[in-house]
Automatic annotation (TrEMBL):
<feature type="transmembrane region" description="Helical">
    <location>
        <begin position="83"/>
        <end position="105"/>
    </location>
</feature>
<keyword id="KW-1133">Transmembrane helix</keyword>
<feature type="transmembrane region" description="Helical">
    <location>
        <begin position="204"/>
        <end position="226"/>
    </location>
</feature>
<dbReference type="InterPro" id="IPR005829">
    <property type="entry name" value="Sugar_transporter_CS"/>
</dbReference>
<dbReference type="InterPro" id="IPR003663">
    <property type="entry name" value="Sugar/inositol_transpt"/>
</dbReference>
<dbReference type="InterPro" id="IPR020846">
    <property type="entry name" value="MFS_dom"/>
</dbReference>
<feature type="domain" description="Major facilitator superfamily (MFS) profile">
    <location>
        <begin position="1"/>
        <end position="473"/>
    </location>
</feature>
<feature type="transmembrane region" description="Helical">
    <location>
        <begin position="380"/>
        <end position="406"/>
    </location>
</feature>
<protein>
    <recommendedName>
        <fullName>Major facilitator superfamily (MFS) profile domain-containing protein</fullName>
    </recommendedName>
</protein>
<dbReference type="InterPro" id="IPR036259">
    <property type="entry name" value="MFS_trans_sf"/>
</dbReference>
<dbReference type="InterPro" id="IPR005828">
    <property type="entry name" value="MFS_sugar_transport-like"/>
</dbReference>
<comment type="similarity">
    <text>Belongs to the major facilitator superfamily. Sugar transporter (TC 2.A.1.1) family.</text>
</comment>
<dbReference type="Pfam" id="PF00083">
    <property type="entry name" value="Sugar_tr"/>
</dbReference>
<feature type="transmembrane region" description="Helical">
    <location>
        <begin position="26"/>
        <end position="44"/>
    </location>
</feature>
<keyword id="KW-0812">Transmembrane</keyword>
<feature type="transmembrane region" description="Helical">
    <location>
        <begin position="111"/>
        <end position="133"/>
    </location>
</feature>
<feature type="transmembrane region" description="Helical">
    <location>
        <begin position="451"/>
        <end position="469"/>
    </location>
</feature>
Amino acid sequence: MAVAGAIFGAAFGGWINDKYGRKKSILLADILFFIGAIVMAAAVAPWMIILGRIFVGLGVGMASMTSPLYISESSPARIRGALVSTNGLLITGGQFLAYLINLAFTKTPGTWRWMLGVAGVPAVVQFFLMLSLPESPRWLYSQDKVKEARAILEKIYPANEVEQEMQALQSSIEADKASEVSIGHGFISKVKHIWGNDVVRRGLYAGITVQVAQQFVGINTVMYYSPTIVQLAGFASNKTALALSLITSGLNAVGSIVSMAFVDRFGRRRLMIVSMFGIIVCLIALSVMFHQASNHAPAVSSFESLHFGRNSTCGSFLNAYEPSNWNCMSCLKASSDCGFCANGDSKYHPGACLAATDAVKGMCKGEHRTWYTKGCPSKFGFFAVLLLGLYIISYSPGMGTAPWIVNSEIYPLKYRGIGGGIAAVSNWVSNLIVSETFLTLTEALGSSGTFLLFAGFSTIGLVAIYFLVPETKGLQFEEVEKMLEKGFKPSLCGNVKEDDSK
């Protein structure tokens, strides 16, 4: 429900950004987030938690496209990428911190109420700090507040660069006003004519491509379901799975620091292409690893299963045509009512396929055996977790932050809110599709097939990024517009050439 709310938050956020400015959009996002956190903490029924999640989602969706936009418009071009990457670092660092905070609340009275309610604190802090910050100078200039825009630019740029920035803004605004004569001033008019504008259309091709690709590499399956994936790799303990998921979120934050250091040196496009190659290799390796883990899962022993009594044995196993061919994965896939109780001497020896009830689980653990319901004992489990870490390291510096940087600088000023909003909606819709289908895919295709599918999506994304996404490193916003107006085509070395034929 939070992701669904984020879709609408991003959609309305684009209009609010253009109409009322970046600062007011962030303040509104803080209010929505605070309301959602309080509603969830005070919930007396499930519908209140759902309502709170929707409010939180609206705030997250609005902030997700506004924050990078606000930062980029208030930053000098030479360090713009690094400053927008800071936004990514604080998001991933916040995720890691949230894991730790929730862990601290597990043993306090009213555990989940504190977990959900404390999320309102950052929103309050940001709201009051945001009151002291200025509006985006580029938005102010577009609203004919020239003196206010100049005053803010004088605080950001050296004195000798302010006039140059003002002239670039003036030419950009004049071009926008000229286009408005033919398309009109309203929001609906802009949307209707958006695909007829070469600059905006090419910007949207790039912006939507990177946002959809960011999600279809499968990142949020790892972030949302990392404890489940770790269990699929053969780690049965919930505590172990949660501890390892902390590591994945920590690596995500570290990757954001790498992005800050290199995004303005090597460029957004090159960083994303290198990132995608690393992601594809890791996903294919994960697919192979999970396939091997499945093939080498411990066998199911009839003697071990009947050791707990016929009534405790999984019904699917008892009625199987060739039970001697069963292994742990066969047991778990047969039915959600089946669980695997590992051998007492070694978890890699043949074990028991039992009914997945609390009583039977207690009997299994009573004999100091390990109980499995998601994955099986595997000698490959450590390597699977290692590959998950490498996948995060490949993803975070490039595909984790660069798509938001690209979308904060690829659109003309008048269309920056609408363009960023459309791209953010595509991101959250893709997020919802991937996260909602992951568990179903693992049941239908298995873990190996699911990761291989994401490798295929990532390959398509890599090709699309290569052909559709230009490099914007170090360019003024107005220079990006001129590049898109002329058109571009990729070169073999990863840079972008202007297409003079267009």
